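Course assignment 3, question 2. Fill in each field.
Student: A.L.
Task: Predict the tertiary structure for the chain below.
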Amino acid sequence: MTHGIRTDTHTSYLNGGNDWRELASRFALLPLRIFLGVTFIYAGLDKLTDSAFMKSAGAGSLGDTMRATRDSAAIPALVDLALKNPVGFGYAIAFGELAVGIGTLIGLFGRLAALGGALISLSLWLTVSWSSTPYYYGNDLAYLMAWLPLVLAGAPYFSVDAALRARRRQRSSGYR
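Answer field:
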């Protein structure tokens, strides 16, 4: 039996357990959370301030975009549903993006906000960007995949959720 020194491990106990690898893995999802939060806030505000987008017909309108993509969508019934009231659907998407973006950025109901972002991205992928060839040119699929780690992990650091969790923990430890 041969014993040797393992060189594939690191010793975090030498500096109190707070080495850079531990720190990096603890905050690994923070840049993704910031990017998706800011992007969805921007997307929602962009839709709300674009006078052409929030119309049922005309150049640049949501209605014309939906009619143009209807036949190439994976689920045309979703497009038909949106076409019943394109302006209402546009406002729903814009306010949904704002709520998801704000929730993700500040970390309020982080998993729920990420699930909302994933559902918005999924619906856009199955309708608007479904016909992108090759498939990876459609950015909605990439956004859907980016939301999934946040659905699983939530917003454990630098978030309202973490502050509320710490406050509950502090209160419960005080009553023992």
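Instructor remarks: The first helix runs from residue 20 to 26. Residues 63 and 83 are 6 Å apart (CA to CA).
Grade: pending
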